[in-house]
Amino acid sequence: MNAPFSAKVELSLIVAGERFQLGQLGPDFALLRTPQTIDAAVGVIETIIDDTVSRRCVRITGPPDGDSRRVEFESL
Question: What is the pTM of this model?
Answer without folding.
Answer: 0.86
